[in-house]
Amino acid sequence: MKRGRFSWGDGPPTPLPKRPYRDTVLVNIGLAVTVVLVSWLTGGRVRNAVIVAGAFFVVATAWSLRVWREKLRKADAEARRRG
Q1: Is residue 74 assigned to a domain?
Q2: Are the C-beta atoms of residues 16 and 75 closer than 8 Å to each other?
Q3: Which letter, b or e, does each residue of 49-80 get, where b requires 16 or more Cβ atoms within 10 Å of its Cβ?
Q4: Domain count of the chain?
Q5: Among 8, 41, 44, 79, whose CB has the most other CB atoms within 10 angstroms?
Q6: Residue 28: Cβ within 10 Å count
């Protein structure tokens, strides 16, 4: 490790959460609701905000679930290799 420089690869790996899929969906729902609330509170077009929030939810959730699937497969393969 180089001193004085931050590296994302340093340190122990973070443990995987118990329910990564559920947690991801809940966070994305919260963010989508926030988009609609901000639009409503600022006097924006709520209909457009609902469309944007829905699209955000679908795309972000699909992306996140794909990433979690890959991480869980790697963790499973590593566990099989060790034991």
Answers
A1: yes
A2: yes
A3: beeebeeebeebbeebeeebeeeeeeeeeeee
A4: 1
A5: 44
A6: 21
For residue 38, give Cα distances in angstroms to 31, 32, 45, 55.
11, 10, 10, 16
Statement: residue 1 has pLDDT above 50: no
Which residue pairs from 37-44 have beta carbons closer than 8 angstroms and sit at least 24 positions apart in sequence?
A: none
Domain range for 43: 20-82
**Would 8 be classed as within a structural domain?**
no
Average pLDDT taken over every residue of the chain: 90
Tokens for 8? 């994302």
Q: Is residue 66 part of a domain?
A: yes
Helix axes 46-82, 20-41, angle to 10 degrees: 160
